[in-house]
Design goal:
By secondary structure, the chain is an alpha/beta fold. It contains 5 helices and 5 strands, in the order βαβαβαβαβα. The chain has a 5-stranded parallel beta sheet with strand order 2-1-4-3-5, with helices on both faces.
């Protein structure tokens, strides 16, 4: 299964991009994913559609789950032979009702409204954490 994080909006600053890249690097042997920057919502949705598979929107109205619960969801996708999952992080205005209706799942990282660049870093870390949970690695102490 392939995972792609499609982030919309301004590119993250160098420090944030470096932190995200570190989680992408660490996750590579466990749960590889790629991070793609999209300048517009249209480009983001086109990128998701071109990859096929499931579309997950990060949205404060979505389902909150623990890291082990997220790992179980990812494991379920793997067991179901899902080929690709696109995880979309919206811009400053988030997603419209119509866009939310197009997604297969809405995931909330927090009940708090997060800046999209911070959501990107949190998602990258959580995907790495999911990989470690599924591999039985001690990174996750919960």
């Amino acid at each position: 299964m392939r995972l792609t994080v499609l982030a919309q909006g301004r590119k993250p600053d160098a420090a944030l991009a470096s932190a995200c890249d570190e989680y992408v690097r660490r996750a590579a042997p466990l749960l590889p994913f790629e991070r793609v920057h999209c300048t517009t919502a249209k480009a983001q949705w086109e990128a998701a559609r071109s990859r096929g598979g499931l579309v997950v929107l990060l949205d404060e109205r979505g389902t909150q789950c623990s890291s082990p619960e997220l790992a179980e969801r990812v494991a379920g996708w793997q067991r179901s032979a899902v080929k690709h999952v696109s995880l979309l992080i919206g811009g400053a205005d988030g997603f419209s009702e119509a866009e939310r209706a197009q997604a297969q799942w809405l995931l909330a990282l927090s009940k708090l409204t997060l800046p999209h660049r911070l959501a990107l870093l949190l998602l990258c870390e959580q995907l790495y954490r999911v990989g470690t949970i599924l591999a039985g690695h001690p990174y996750h102490h919960g």
